[in-house]
Design a protein that fits this description.
Elements: H1 3-33, H2 39-57, H3 72-80, E1 109-112, E2 121-125, H4 128-145
Antiparallel strand pairs: 1-2
Length: 153
């Protein structure tokens, strides 16, 4: 599945849920104005809201394990929605690498969480080529020096 197909499927599901929620709200408002108890509709509405929130904010933990050059980065780039993960002959994901899907219109960023810090630092932002390059540089640094908490250059 390409990143475009993934984004289209995600958007379609989210938009369908949003339209269904709007329709239920209109029905519920009509019944409320007639003095009807809408607790049943309210619980359905709450469940749809919960599902839409989960769809938008859900974080998945996925381990992608395969031989080198097997397409792991290509697969993850499709999930992310941008070609930001680079690959090379040496191991690129020497340490835990968290990736998130990027909704349409959002700018891709490479963040690094460091020990003792609550917020990540931005290593690169916007240009996929720059993000790939910085990812490779930082990965090489970690591979050579270990994953110390020093801020990268």
């Amino acid at each position: 599945m390409s990143s475009e197909q993934f984004q289209a499927a995600h958007d379609s599901i989210y938009n369908t849920g949003t339209r269904l929620l709007q329709y239920l709200q209109e029905i519920r408002q009509g019944r409320l104005s007639e003095g009807d108890d809408t607790k049943g509709l309210q619980s359905v509405e709450d469940e749809i809201n919960k599902a839409l929130h989960a769809l938008k904010e859900q974080k998945y933990q996925v381990a992608v394990i395969a031989a080198m050059k097997a397409g792991k980065s290509t697969f993850l780039n499709a999930v992310i929605g941008a070609d930001v993960l680079a690959s090379e002959t040496a191991a690129c994901t020497i340490c835990r690498t968290d990736v998130r899907h990027i909704p349409s219109g959002q700018i891709p960023r490479l963040l690094e969480y460091q020990e003792g810090q609550r917020r990540p630092i931005v290593l690169a932002e916007g240009d996929a080529g720059e993000i790939q390059q910085k990812f490779l540089v930082r990965t090489r640094e970690i591979r050579e020096k270990g994953n110390c908490a020093k801020q990268p250059n």
